[in-house]
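Complex 336.
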Amino acid sequence: MNNILKIGVAGMGAIGRSHIERIANKLQGAKVVAATDVATEHGKSVAESLGLNFFPNEEKLIAEGGIDALIVTASDEYHERYVLAAVKAGIPVFCEKPLAPAADGCKRIIDAEIAGGKKLVQVGFMRRYDPGYRQLKQMVDSNEYGSPLLLHCAHRNYEVPDNYDTPMAISNSLIHEIDVLRWLISEDYESVEVSLPRKTKYAAANLQDPQILILHSKSGIRMDVEIFVNCHVGYDIQCEICCEEGFLKLPDLSAPERLVNASRIKPICRDWSERFIDAYNLEIQEWINATKEQRVDGPTAWDGYVACITADFAHQARDTQSRVKIEMPECPEFYK
Ligand code: ISE
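Predicted structure with ISE bound:
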């Protein structure tokens, strides 16, 4: 591999374009050279407007695109197909979360990666790169504040499109907390339950919104996470860790306060691309650096699998309105 990592992108939607833009304008050591998309006409026109070679499918992109690595930013249902193509070709692949819409898809990826004998997959759990979450992690790991006992979290989106349904609140949005909380406390989950409050008038018929997920870790830490995707207020992410000797709070993005008309106004973000811009930049830069040294330093396919297994048990807990034990397979040596 020469000095510049040549990347192909599968999926020319908003997140794909924003990764292409950050690699071109903000990050070092890589260049996006080629692209594919299941929607050929759309993909082709976006790719051409960005000066990228377009290929009609992933096989051609990998075989003829001259790429060293792949970034998968297609919709969730195409993740498995693209990741498997990269793994089978032996090239590193960064896949946006979730690794697949359900755990069985992740399992096929794990099996293929283990069969190839080399770690190639990183999952886009970008919260692990957010400076605020990183500070929380250092504080928890330092043990200066004692053991974590309780976590109170919220994940609020301004609004979501009408095709966004009840399971997506967990599998597409709250999956970030499923990953980042397990990473923060360095422990696996024991059980999950889902409480369903009164529904907002802004939610479409196919969406229960808000929902509250309650997770218990193996050692008994209790974590409640509100997911409220049509809150019509802004993009608001909260995480408070109550430890034996102190309470640790995730900082908000700093913004100046305005004092006007006898009020104090402090803006909050409108959406996630604004709130987590630093996290995305760091995440992709660190992936580029590690990929060039043939390592996977970030969240692995195993982390993606664990998150999807947890989400699948959460769906069961919601549908049965009961506390469900999370059965997790033993982590293979390959991922330890
Ligand atoms: C989106 O895909 C994200 O990753 C955002 O962080 C999350 O807040 C949003 O709900 C998801 O749809």
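The mean pLDDT is 97.
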